[in-house]
Design goal:
By secondary structure, this protein is of the alpha+beta class. The protein folds into two domains: 185 residues, D-Maltodextrin-Binding Protein, domain 2 (3-Layer(aba) Sandwich); 196 residues, D-Maltodextrin-Binding Protein, domain 2 (3-Layer(aba) Sandwich), CATH 3.40.190.10. The chain is built from 17 helices and 16 strands. A five-stranded mixed sheet has the order 2-1-3-15-6. The chain has a three-stranded antiparallel sheet with strand order 13-8-14. A hairpin with a 5-residue loop joins strand 9 and strand 10.
Amino acid sequence: MKMFLSHKKLVSFMLVLMIIVIMLSSTLFIKGTRLSSEAISGLTDSQRDSQSNVKHGSAPVTISFWFPWGGGFQQEFHDTVVVPFEKANPDIKVKMRFVENSDNSQASDKLLTAIAGGRAPDVAMIDRFLVSQWAAMGALEDLSSDVIRDDMAGIYYRNIWPETQYNNKTFALPWNVDSRAMLYNKTLMEEAGLDPNKPPTTIAELDAMAEKMFIQNKKGNYEQVGFVPWMAQGFLYAHGWNFGGQWEKNGELTPSDPENIKALEWMQGYAKKYDAKKLASFSDAIRQSGANPFTSGKVGFIYEGNWLLNDMDDVNFEWGIAPMPTERGDQAVTWAGGWSFAMPKGAKHKEQAWRFIKYAAGKEGGFLWAGRGQTYDLSSIPDVNKQLGLDKKKNLEVFVNLLEHAYIRPVSPIGGYMWEELYLVQKLAVNLQGEPKALLSELKRRLDAHLIEVKSEERSKTEHPEPNTL
């Protein structure tokens, strides 16, 4: 009887234990499910979609990315940015395609043709100053809602961000950025009897120092020059700002600003004094050698971008960097350019394209690209440049510290047209084929007329929209 009761108690105990185990298992399952749900809810929509697609074994979406940079860019960008992006987003594959720009311009007719024909890529690299012009043509998707939702606008340089805007809407994200400064050959300065540690800060000082560096051979051809205003990054845009001019004021394009006229007169003055044809022959000889004018060691002063630092390791002379001289010498001036990532109109995979744009042009991609190897490339995100120590990197720090107050080219639906026309005016002036005031006044007339025409076409498209037309 005792044995029976003992066995009965044992059975009862086992039953109770099993019930407890079942209850605990159920509780843990419920908690685990809740914790898993909470973890998933903490992910972004795109991350949840990515994990869901991977879980269910669906094929990744392939997005097309067009870019105009040649050389080794494709492989380097793929390895540096695309591979990490695809690992973080296994539901997306990025197919890169090189599409060259047209006629040495910064725009691609092939890209515009593809957009007009309904064959647009999902993502494209576009020179940032052209964004407003392409947006006005209806060639780009409006990214405003994505930018606002993901709080992207505030991470970029404030003075750079306007280049991505048109009619108070966002059409691209800034990617890289560049600025301009003056590089000077200390060796040539010393040979000319100048203090190599005191570069010019005013335009008058620059003129005086440069004059001592011009050397001609027996035939009268230049073997060495002090400074050529239109060489390298010596565009009229830069000189106008250095003289205190403005290229846009209250929404109006102002190429005939008196200070801009003065800048062009100064440029033409060099053409007259040092003979434009002989200066052209000097530049052509260097170009044929494949060297940059400054790295050739035959130029005293030059205006260049931070990218030239990538080619300065092997020069055989002493050199330095300083802000470009200005008329008054009381402030450092530069202007910034760079490229952007945009979504062409008609992109077929908008959600995936945005995720790639946000990654590549955001902080993640910025750290990867600007932080790779020993390069002198800069991000459009100040926090990236600072955390990578680029604002303290030797020689590069001059360019970085100028960015905060850098000028940008006018944000206009005819920005690209203005750039091309301004360059033509510059060429005419330095070839002594027109007076600066008349040239810039005529340019002002053409720009105003073209802007009216473009605005009219834009209104017409808005009032009478047609599919796949630019």
